[in-house]
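User: My collaborator and I are trying to settle a disagreement about how two of our proteins should look. Neither of us wants to argue from intuition anymore, so we agreed to look at predicted structures for both before our next call. Could you fold the first one, then the second, and keep them clearly separated?

Assistant: That sounds like a sensible way to settle it. I'll keep them separate. The first protein:
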Amino acid sequence: MRAKSAETGNQRPNWIQALAVFTTSAICGLVIGTLQHYLGLGVWGYGFGKEAFELACLEGGAVGGFIGIPTGLVGYYAVMKTRASNKQIALVVAGSLIGGCVASLAAATLSAFVTPILTLLLCARVKRSTTLRASSELNPA
C-alpha cells in the first residue's frame, strides 16, 4: 500500500511514511525536551551554562526523545489521520516547543507530563481548524 502526501499528492510506501514520522517525532522530542530541561531547571536553580546544557541534553533530551515517539505517532496517525501538511506539522511542533518551555518555567520537571497532552490537543485543534476552513470554502454562505 502507498500513502498519499497531503500537499503534493505523491505516492510513497507506508513504511517510509511510518519511519519518517517515527524519526521526526524522536528528533522533535529530543530538541523540545532538551530546551524544556535547560530553561525550566535553569530558572529553578541549575543555572545556565555548558554543564547545565549537557545535563539537559542527557536528561531532558533522552526523556523527550522517548516520549516524543509515541506522542508523534498517536498525533499523526490517530488524531490527524495522516492528513497533515508540512505547515500543520510545523504549527504543532512550534506550539509544543513554546508551550513545553512555558510549562517548564512554571512547573520544571512536571512539564514532561504536560507537553505530550498539549501536543495531542494541538494536533486536534489544527485538524479541526483545517477541517472547518475546508468545509466553509466548500459551502460559502
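The second protein, kept apart from the first:
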Amino acid sequence: MKCWIILAGLLTLGVSVEAHFANGIKIGEVDQNSAKVWTRLTQNPVSNGDGVRFEKTKKHVVPASMQLPKGKVLADMEGAVPGAPGEVRIVWQIKGEIPHSSDWIKADSGSDFTACFDLEELEPSTTYLIKVEDRTGTSFAGSFKTAPMAETREPVAFAVVTGQDYPRRDDPKGHKIYSQMQRLDLDFFVHTGDIEYYDKAEPYATSLEFARFKMARVYGLPNLVGFHRNMVSYFIKDDHDTTKNDAWPEQHYGELTWQQGLEIFREHFPVLEKNYRTIRWGKDLQIWLVEGRDFRSPNTLADGPEKTIWGKEQKEWFFRTVGASDATFKILISPTPIVGPDRSNKNDNHANEGFMHEGDEIRTFIASQKNMFVACGDRH
C-alpha cells in the first residue's frame, strides 16, 4: 500500500518516470523541405540481451500463449525492448543556428510507446542536428541531410536492402551489412520489406503483442540503432511484415489481424498513410517506392484486366509522375519482382502468371522510358 501511495503521488504531481531510447530513432520521408523522425520510449537503455531464448519449433502457427516458458512474460525474453509511458519531443537545428523544438507528444501503450514528428520548412541540401528527449531529460541525438533541389547536379549514393530477421542475423549485434553500409557515405537507404518475419519461429507473431515485440526487438540491435541515427531511410513493407507469406488484404495470421499488421507498420516506421511516394534527389535521380500489399487482389483470382497488385489509384499515379519526370535516371524500387523469371511455384508478384496482365502493362511502360531501372526486393 505504501508503494501505491508513492506512485499515485508522483502521477498527481505530473512527475515522469525516467524512460530511455533503446530503439533509437528512424529518419524517414525526407525530401527538400520536410522529414519525419520516429522514436520509442523504453524502460531500459538497451535491449534484454541476457533474456530467456524462445524454443525452436517447426510448427507453422503456434498461439502466442503457448510460446512463452512457464512463468515468463515477453519482457523476460532475449532481445526484449519493453516500452515505457511518457512524453517526448524533438529538437532540431542547423549547426550553429538557433534550435527549434516541437510540442511534447504522449507515448503510451496505445501506440506501443512510439512517437513520430513531422519537420517542415527545412532547407534543401542541408544537414540538421536532431535530438529526441523525454520529460526527465534523457535524450538520443542524430542527424540527417535533406535532398538537393531538382536543378542541382551532385553525386548521389544509396543502398537498397530486403529481408531481415532477428534469429537469422549474422552477428549478435545485428546484421553485419549495417556496419558496412555506415562506411559508404550514403545519401539515403531503402528497405523494401520483410523487415521482420511474423510467420517465422522464435517466436511466431500470432498476436498483436508478439508482432510488436518482434519489431521492437530487431530494432533494438546495436548495429541497427547506430545506423539509423544518422541515416535518411525509406521503408516499404511486404507480406511477412504485414501478416504472413503471400498475404493479401484481410488475411489474418493466428490472432494477428490484417488491420493490426498495417497499424504496427505505421507505429514502428516514419511512413505515409498511403505508403507509395516518389522522391527527387537532385537533377539526376528520382525514385518511386510502391505499396504492394494494401491494394492487391487475392492471389487466387483468375488473371485479367481487373486483377491488380498496385490498385488503380497507385498505378495511375505511377504512370503520371514517371511521365512528368525530367530526372536523368528513374528508378522504381519494388518490394517484389517486376521482371521474371521467378520460382515456378509462386503466384504472388508481377513476374508470375497470376499477375501477368498488370505485369505486362507495367513492363511495357517502363521499357518506353529512357534510363529507367527497377530495384527489386524479395527476389525468389
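Some points you might bring to the call about the second protein. The CA atoms of residues 303 and 355 lie 6 Å apart. DSSP finds seven helices and 15 strands in the chain.
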